[in-house]
């Protein structure tokens, strides 16, 4: 019965969530009830001990601050484990392969802290990591929410492995060559205006991104570009919700409608047993800033079906 209820909710999630876009700098993070390191990961714990575990993974160069609105929204009902990836938000970078190291440390953290079937919610790079984790051990998870994080970066599926490696090298070299000040300026001037609708949000987020190591961002970006997790999607036997933003200014030249982008995103999940795509209109990449209420509604609807 629960599987039938979940299927009906996932089918309903093909509807579009939308609300008027406004500047929505999330609130400051509350005081963590616990903080610890788990190998390469730093973990801050919020919410209600003993409740179901919700693990939040940030995007490239971000920290738990980008999830502060969701931490406030879901703290009464979940024990929230907010991760910081190595090299981001003031944390020291690590050497070697990032995806294998971080995913191994994630599973060690789950075992050491006795997290029973946690839910993962990841944004961008964090969403891709959540999908990879679902492929590795779906039996250990309850569900995955990916907010504009995909099994392969959009457009990269059209490139050969050699072309993808070359693109990864270019991204890595560009980011690694930047000083912290140059990195922050580039984010504020070129990147974030495409990722956020509000100038005030851009001004608020850029200094936070500036706390991350540009070389670490380059290394993460390189691995992200080289990642194509589609072949193993059949192993991700867990409820999986992809939340995709749609902004006519940014997306319109490629996707004439939210339905067109939804169909493209859904095609990237071919083979995943329980994956669906929900659209949030009026939002760019940082959905939690552009449409926080719509994002929280989409997540809440999904989680109610999972439990």
Contiguous low-pLDDT stretches (5 residues minimum) are 1-15
Beta-strand percentage?
15-25%
Structural class: alpha/beta
Which whole number gives the mean pLDDT?
92
Label the overall shape. Answer: globular
- Helix and strand string, N-terminal first? HEEEEHEHEHEHHHHEHHEHH
Instruction: Going across the biggest sheet, name each strand in turn.
Output: 1-9-8-7-6-4-5-3-2
Q: Using only CA atoms, what is the Rg?
A: 18 Å
Report on the biggest sheet. 9 strands, mixed
Share of residues in helices: 40-55%
The total of beta strands comes to: 9
Total helical elements: 12
What is the first-to-last residue Cα distance?
Answer: 12 Å
Please outline the helices and strands:
Blueprint: H1 2-12, E1 16-18, E2 34-38, E3 41-47, E4 53-57, H2 68-74, E5 79-84, H3 98-112, E6 119-123, H4 125-136, E7 143-147, H5 161-176, H6 180-195, H7 199-209, H8 214-226, E8 240-246, H9 248-251, H10 258-267, E9 275-281, H11 287-290, H12 292-306
Parallel strand pairs: 1-9, 4-5, 4-6, 6-7, 7-8, 8-9
Antiparallel strand pairs: 2-3, 3-5
Helix pairs in contact: 1-12, 5-8, 6-7
Could you list some keywords that capture this structure?
single chain, 307 residues, alpha/beta, nine-stranded mixed β-sheet, 12 helices, 9 strands, 16% strand, globular, disordered N terminus
Can you tell me about this structure?
- With 307 residues, the protein is an alpha/beta fold.
- 44% of the residues lie in helices and 16% in strands.
- The protein has 12 helices and 9 strands.
- The chain has helices at residues 2-12, 68-74, 98-112, 125-136, 161-176, 180-195, 199-209, 214-226, 248-251, 258-267, 287-290, 292-306; strands at residues 16-18, 34-38, 41-47, 53-57, 79-84, 119-123, 143-147, 240-246, 275-281.
- It has a 9-stranded mixed β-sheet with strand order 1-9-8-7-6-4-5-3-2, sandwiched between helices.
- Helix 4 (125-136) links the parallel strand 6 (119-123) and strand 7.
- Helix 1 (2-12) runs antiparallel to helix 12 (292-306), helix 5 runs antiparallel to helix 8 and helix 6 packs antiparallel against helix 7 (199-209).
- It starts with a helix and ends with a helix.
- 49% of the residues are buried.
